[in-house]
Amino acid sequence: MPTNRSTHSSNVSRFPTAPATPAVAGPAGGASRQQLPVPAHALPHRTPRELLTLARRGLEEAAEIRTDGMRYATAHLAALRAAAAVLAARAVPAAPGRRSRVTSVWSLLVLVAPELTEWAAYFAAGASKRSAAEAGIPRVVTAREADDLMRSAEQFIAVVEVGLGFSYQPRLEGLAS
Q1: Is 16 in contact with 5 (CB distance < 8 Å)?
Q2: Which of 112, 61, 125 lies closest to 83, judged by CA?
Q3: Sign (positive/negative) of CA torsion 123, 125, 126, 128?
Q4: By CB neighbour count within 10 A (0-12 exposed, 13-18 middle, 19+ buried), where does 111 fall?
Q5: Cα gap 9→104, rounded to integer Å
Q6: What is the pLDDT of residue 91?
Q7: How many H-runs (helices) and E-runs (strands) does the chain carry?
Q8: CB 61: neighbour CB atoms within 10 A?
Q9: What SS3 state is found at 92?
Q10: CA atoms of 60 and 63, how far apart (whole Å)
Q11: SS3 assignment, position 129
């Protein structure tokens, strides 16, 4: 799990970064952010806000799941949706005819948000476990691994929300939705 994250409350348009990683300045920082071309088929078809809402719902769902493997897989999917929100906000479709090999969301995330490289590496490393858990392979993850991934996904989603300028307010228990 990436460590040493700090928030930049003076500029919510950039992501929290590790000390050794330079931040990408957003419009409030005076520098214009370059949007990198990504193959159109790899871009999300939802808005960043929709994807972050789905990510939060996924975390809530994961918290209710009893089996370790499915809790892990559901939390990983929530993090994947948060990464897709960054792509939806920062990437632009590549020029028609420009072909690119198929790549993972985590690889694309590093291209459009290099300050999230540690997070991308962390979640990419867990992708095969997620696939195995979704396939129903027993004991592919432990309860501790599932709990750790839940916490990491929660932190990552919060980092993305701040980085994209969204705020999250937890639902109050007992109130009708």
Answers
A1: yes
A2: 112
A3: positive
A4: middle
A5: 30
A6: 80
A7: 6, 2
A8: 15
A9: strand
A10: 5
A11: helix
Cβ-based neighbours of 161, under 8 Å, separated by 6 or more: 52, 82, 167, 168
CA distance 89 to 53: 14
Q: Does 44 score more than 70 pLDDT?
A: no
CA–CA separation, 128 and 137 (whole Å)? 12
What pLDDT shows up at residue 15?
53
Cβ atoms 170, 157 nearer than 8 A: no
| CA 153 – CA 30 distance, rounded (Å) | 30
Distance CA 25, CA 45 (A): 26
- Mean pLDDT, all residues of the chain: 78
Query: Which amino acid appears at position 55 of this protein?
Result: A
Fill in the DSSP letter of residue 38: E
Q: Residue 28: what pLDDT? A: 35
Q: Is 78 in contact with 52 (CB distance < 8 Å)?
A: no
Band (pLDDT 50/70/90 cuts) for residue 45 is confident
Q: How far is CA 121 from the centre of its chain?
A: 11
In tens, the pLDDT along 12-31 reads 345 543 333 333 333 333 33
> Does pLDDT of 89 surpass 60?
yes
Task: For the beta carbon of residue 4, count every other beta carbon within 10 angstroms.
Answer: 11
